[in-house]
Amino acid sequence: MSLKSIHGKVLNGTPLTESDIQYIVDLPDDRLGELSACAHSIRQTHFKQELGLCAIINAKSGTCSENCSFCAQSGHHGAESPEYPLLPIEDIVEAGRKAQNHGVTRFGVVASGKLVGRDDLAGFTEAVRGLAKLGIKPDLSPGILDRSQLKALKKEGLKGYHHNLETSASFFPKMCTTHAYEEDVRAVRAGMDAGLYVCSGGIFGIGESWTDRVELAMLLKELGVPSVPMNFLHPIAGTPLEKQPVLSPEEALKIVALYRFLLPDRTLRICGGRPTVFGAERRKELLTSGMNGLMVGDYLTTSGGDVLADLDEIREAELVPEILG
Hints:
By secondary structure, the protein is α/β, with parallel strands linked by helices. The protein is built from twelve helices and ten strands. It has one domain: Aldolase class I (TIM Barrel). It starts with a helix and ends with a strand.
């Protein structure tokens, strides 16, 4: 067995064995460059040089009913985070317009909370209509919606539904106890059944094992999710994970590469925690690590990078932002 032979298997569409996956997990850091190059090759096979850009707006913030251990917006923790109801629709649409001017093709309206009330659902519908008129692809991350609600939103112009599974089913109870993992899985299935572009992934560096990381990837593959957001923990004061060590850039890059081997034809979208883990020094390496999607601008409760700097680095890496079509 060798990395070259495992790389060849992926290119030929041959499923990897447990031994193949363990070989990748066990690779030492001094082979990270080789691993990333193989992952980038797989990515080019399916996506050539195209890179999808997305952005989000924190449209409703704070006092979430769930107790996810990493989240500053949870009403169960003592973290400081902004609290406000759904923003005015014109503010959401204007944020989408600004993102579109930077080449962003997908714009996500994100709201804290698990359940969606009638008033918020009406607001989301108006926001989707307004964003669709711009020509940008409206995505929604509202909590849990059912198939009928999602189909109704799709008729109004919704393109994508975002609902993260966060981690493996095995590790989830250590991170969240206020709802069952299967509720999240059902939400993802509902989005797929509604014919939407489903964005579902996880957060890494919360204490999970490599086995948990592989388990999550294989479930996302089984569900048929086309877009996998990859977040890295930014420990926030007041949350249970405030003292959790930050992942090293090497481990984070290895996770991205592993996911490219496991999910060769899915969009791997680098999202939250990028500045924390990679800083200004290592962020360029992400562009050739196997990923093919990037969230630009700010995150939910933390600052992101400079969009113009991201665009410069994308050009330097000889990647091309996707064109809205």
